[in-house]
Specification:
There is one protein chain. By secondary structure, the chain is of the alpha/beta class. Helices cover about 30% and strands about 20% of the residues. The chain has helices spanning about 10-20, 35-40, 45-50, 105-120, 165-180, 195-200, and strands at about 30-35, 60-65, 75-80, 80-85, 125-135, 145-150, 155, 185-190. The strands form 2 sheets. Strands 1, 2, 3, 4, 5 and 8 form a 6-stranded mixed β-sheet that branches. A two-stranded antiparallel sheet has the order 6-7. Helix 3 runs antiparallel to helix 5.
Length: about 210
């Protein structure tokens, strides 16, 4: 339902509420949300710049599940949460934009993986991280040629604003790795239509 619903129903604000609703009555769960001001404070400029001029501001939603008494995290689940992707100033053509409400399918996937783990009382500690943005054109949206300093201190020159996933996932993966140090990280994302050319509609591409 999250993937199929239109973007005026599922945007960063409502997606955040859905996460909180799903885990509202669950024990061993804690939820943290970084809004636009907190993203800037932590220098998560990849997430911030992609989503800063949407009506529904960017955010990073973190859900910690403690299913084990261990002090470390077994698994990190990171999911791309681009609730709508216009392509930004490198705007998508007709035929490439109509379905971009589905660009948060990675975030929806990891959300329900964690929900399954909670419901089955999985004996693992899991950190879930979903950067939630809308990649839109606005009066002050990020532009090709700009240089952004990311959370890990690396600089990125923007070559194409339709590669927004690189920015939001780079900040998220860096933060999860540094703060939580999970044994394994699984990153789910809708990245490129070129994967359909390579493997078709019924096969998922996995990079290890």
């Amino acid at each position: 339902d999250l993937v199929n619903d239109p973007s005026h129903s599922v945007h960063p604000a409502t997606f955040e509420k859905e996460v909180k609703k799903i885990f509202a009555k669950e024990k061993n769960i804690s939820i943290t949300v970084f809004n636009d001001k907190e993203l800037v404070k932590r220098w998560m400029m990849g997430i911030y710049n992609v989503g800063k001029w949407s009506e529904h501001g960017p955010r990073l939603v973190l859900v910690e599940y403690k299913g084990s008494k261990k002090k470390w995290y077994d698994i990190g689940l990171v999911g791309k949460g681009v609730c709508f992707d216009s392509g930004g100033y490198n705007i998508k053509p007709t035929g490439g934009m109509e379905d971009m409400k589905i660009d948060m399918a990675g975030g929806a996937t990891v959300l329900w993986i964690l929900n399954y783990a909670v419901q089955t009382k999985l004996d693992k500690n899991i950190i879930l991280a979903i950067p939630m943005v809308e990649n839109l054109i606005s009066h002050n949206a990020y532009k090709p040629g700009e240089i952004i300093t990311m959370y890990n201190g690396k600089t990125v020159e923007i070559g194409n604003t339709d590669a927004e996933w690189r920015l939001i996932l780079a900040d998220t993966l860096s933060y999860v790795e540094e703060k939580y140090k999970p044994d394994y990280v699984f990153d789910f994302a809708t990245l490129t239509g070129a994967q359909l050319v390579a493997t078709g509609n019924s096969i998922s591409a996995i990079i290890g």
